[in-house]
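Ticket #4471: structure output looks truncated?

Reporter: J.K.
Steps to reproduce: submitted the chain below (166 residues) through the standard prediction queue, then opened the result file.
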Amino acid sequence: MDKDTRYRKTGSGVDAIATRQPGLATRQRSLLILVDGRRTAGELAMLTAAFGDTEELLQALLSQGFIEAVDQVHAVPSGPAPLASAPAPLVAAAAVPLAKARSLASRRLIDLLGPGASELCVKLEATRTAEEFRGTLRRVEGILREVVGSQRATQFVNEVETLRVS
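Returned output as attached by the reporter:
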């Protein structure tokens, strides 16, 4: 496996996270959360060194259809967005399903916090209703205020709230 290959989640991968698909090992799930279309296999291996053989985990996710090589799809900007820059908005014109809102919020959390975001992502992904999602989002905001500061926490919540969760 090429260390410079970038991977992104497929629709099945997004669904597997959103529905907490049974049969997906904890390490696979954690790695799947980190796959964002920008990080290379080498970067993912560094982030998940404690998981064991990241190449083997990536191969399993590939063979199960949860991820695909970005080069096979289209090019994306390289590397994660720098934390000091303003992230791209998550704006959606129409209402988005709860699963998609959870996925987008999780991606933004990972952009902000890196692998340390996984516990917060799990909390967001565990929500079952739009109301529960918004309540969890408020709790995540409080944690973010302590970790990244008020301005960035507010920016995160405002971006996610622009999604009309259905």
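Triage note (M.O.): checked the attachment and the full token line is present. Residues 144 and 150 are 8 Å apart (CA to CA).
Status: closed, working as intended.
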